[in-house]
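Can't paste images in this forum, so I'm doing it all in text. The chain is below; anyone willing to post the predicted structure tokens underneath?
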Amino acid sequence: MPHGRRKSGTSSSQNPSQDQSQARQNQPNETNSGQKTSIPTPAGEQLDLYHREYVKQFQDLPISHVLDQNMSYVQSAFHDCSDFVIRQFEIQKGRRAVAAYVEGLVDDAQVNAALKALMIDEGGPGKTDLLSSKSLPVAKTTHVFNYAEWLTGVLSGDTGIFIDGDEHAILLGLGGSETRSIAEPETEAVVRGPREGYVESIRTNTSLLRRKLKTPQLKTRSVVVGRHSNTNLVVAYMESIADPALVEEVLQRLDKIDIDAVLESGYVEELIQDSTYSPFPQVQHTERPDTTAAALLEGRVAIFVDGTPFVLIVPTTFWQMMQANEDYYERFQMATLVRVLRYLFLIVALTTPALYVAITTYHQAMIPTTLLLSLAAAREAIPFPAVVEALIMEISFEALREAGVRLPKTVGQAVSILGALVVGQAAVEAGIVSAPMVIIVSITGIASFTIPRYNAAIAFRMLRFPLLILASVFGMFGILIGVMFILGHMAKLRSFGVPYLSPTSPLASSDLKDILIRAPWSQMGARPEYLDTQDTQRTDRGMRQELSAQGGQKGKQIEHDHQAGAEEEGS
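Text version of the structure:
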């Protein structure tokens, strides 16, 4: 049975008695205290509470109408849980009830107000349905009928209510845990654009997206993943735009996830991607609501994971990784210039060390004589071949970059600067590496920073080393072999069935307006063809045509000063 569960409905086992008998055979019969704790089910069968290890295994266990049985289960299941609170109270006319919640996940003031409203209720047995509409001052209430739904809700921050005589419970949405305030994401900073970024609360994140897309066409479907973590996921898409087959594929892959816990979106990313061993990211992650909204409007699907500010976007292409948020906020001329610069520096970041090693080792005739003499003089006292020299510098640079990321900000920047200046200069003076190699590695490092997406930059940083080895063995031919292998791998790669090099391979000429260049918004009226969207049109060109024809409203009827002066002189 898949461990990813959609929360749109209640699922139950096809054979509950068989599941229970198997549980008795596979699990121990003793609790941590050495005493066996069991409660009778409504059918009268004794059920060992500790036979079921995961929350999903309680889907076939209905909530009892006997309050004592429910209390016995709750107290046994949350044994030795100091943060779990059970509050017994009575509704008027002597009707008993129990409230249960996890301390720190709820708003105590709201819980107290809800319990006070329940204590003055005069409803009789079987009237739980009336409580939600008559007595409870709570905006979100849910009726659940099995322990799996009840446990998932309480462990997610809801308050669970059992009332004697009712065969279902109420979950009150009174969550109020402390969360980080909304701030600008550090990994995707922009000069022009929104300054808000996602936080660790999934409902805060979906609300940030809802502020960008104020339409009922934005759908958010919930899924629970992780046998122990029971992590809440939300799949967001535009119903009138996204391909229904793509949405269903995403939901099916999430449903098939079988893992004990999901602690960050990286778990989900590795489990749902098409090719596990490819260095290229097939899932985009972002901290920005505007990036997510733009992706959904193109026909993509977003996956929110509770407990992390990173949202996953699928499907993903290579060209998407080279696009930054600010490309669409600045004028298209500037965005196009910066994009061309990124692609040039991408080539520099990938091939420059390999080209230096290949040319200085095998193809010295390609170097001008003056430069060749300068390189020979610089390398005269170096005891290592060019490839070893390049590996030493590249590995040292990666270590310095990693140290700068892991250390505190104030210390990390100092370490990076001192390492680049002091260590590099000392290495040159000691004769370990040559000055040209320091320049080559520095240019390569700067070039890698121009790639907008961090996970894409990592891929090219890793591929730089195989190209370096090939260049040291086969020269320029090795570099060509390596580049052809990389392009062939990218052409074969898929992201949720979409070719990774779309729209260049296979070619879709209408989509090339947002690849190497960024055309004006008036020219990008259609959504990407390779996403097979339902609604293909984005913009209407009527306004631009009107401006071109008339110069705007009454544009040709405006008299300029020099024209008015000429008319006065003529008269």
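The chain has four domains: 33-172, 202-316, 332-499, 520-550. Confidence is low (pLDDT under 50) at residues 8-47.
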